[in-house]
Write a structure and sequence with these properties.
The chain is an alpha+beta fold. The chain folds into 3 domains: about 1-80, no CATH class; about 90-170, Winged helix-like DNA-binding domain superfamily/Winged helix DNA-binding domain (Arc Repressor Mutant, subunit A, Orthogonal Bundle); about 175-205. Helices cover about 40% and strands about 20% of the residues. The protein has 9 helices and 8 strands. The strands form 3 sheets. The protein has a 3-stranded mixed β-sheet. Strands 6-8-7 form a 3-stranded antiparallel β-sheet. A two-stranded antiparallel sheet has the order 1-2. Helix 4 (about 90-100) packs across helix 6 (about 125-135). The protein starts with a strand and ends in a 13-residue tail after the last helix.
């Protein structure tokens, strides 16, 4: 057993190919972590903020069923290239979008623990607790019980409000757009249809559609 360089938790490293010196492990907080031997040592020199970002990157890729990145020494010098969510309110909105994609739009409830789930928002435990207070104060989330402990805050019975559901759905594409994505347009003239179809595909390439992906059963 060894120590996770991101969280300090005790973990069990695995290595599929000893010739490549790439380790992997998984914890409830980090999700799946894949790391080179050099990076394992280099991570220890990161600031707490940088460790939070890297933990968040791993956890969010895990809940989205995305292939884990291989953390190398080069990765550690350019974490911004992996697009972690930065800033307090963007992180709060990110958490709401996760809840929405997990059934929050149907008023399913959730449980969070600040020591574990701060990784969802790329933040520290303290910032995660402020994010939860912000969401509650703003009326975007209802929390049945909050239990502070020495191991962080436990939030039980967390549900989205109508206001937060509406806020998320403002960013979703409207139904007519789905028709444009999936249907071809025909006029009866083959040459004209070809031009129309080229224009439709070009439009879709240029249009930045926003989408909230469904997440697996485990956060």
């Amino acid at each position: 057993m060894v120590t996770c360089p991101l969280t300090g938790q005790t973990v069990q490293f695995a290595m599929d190919d000893p010739s490549k010196m790439i380790y992997h492990y998984e914890t409830p907080k980090t999700g799946k972590v894949v790391c080179t031997d050099v990076a394992l040592t280099a991570i220890e020199a990161l600031s707490d903020e940088e460790k939070n970002l890297l933990t968040g990157i791993c956890r969010n890729r895990t809940i989205n069923n995305e292939k884990p990145i291989i953390i190398s020494a080069n990765t550690l010098t350019n974490l911004a290239a992996l697009n972690p969510v930065m800033g307090f309110e963007p992180r709060a909105r990110h958490l709401i979008s996760i809840i929405y994609g997990r059934g929050g739009n149907e008023y399913q409830d959730f449980q969070f623990v600040s020591t574990r789930d701060s990784a969802l928002t790329y933040s520290s435990m303290e910032e995660f607790e402020r994010i939860m207070r912000f969401l509650k104060t703003k009326g975007w989330i209802d929390i049945r019980t909050t239990t502070p402990t020495t191991n962080g805050c436990f939030y039980q019975g967390d549900t989205m409000s109508e206001a937060s559901i509406a806020e998320i759905e403002k960013g979703l594409p409207k139904m007519p757009m789905y028709g444009l994505v999936s249907q071809e347009i025909t006029s009866g003239d083959a040459d004209m249809d070809k031009q129309i179809e080229q224009a439709r595909k070009l439009f879709l390439i240029c249009l930045p559609l926003k989408k909230i992906n469904g997440l697996p059963a485990k956060l």
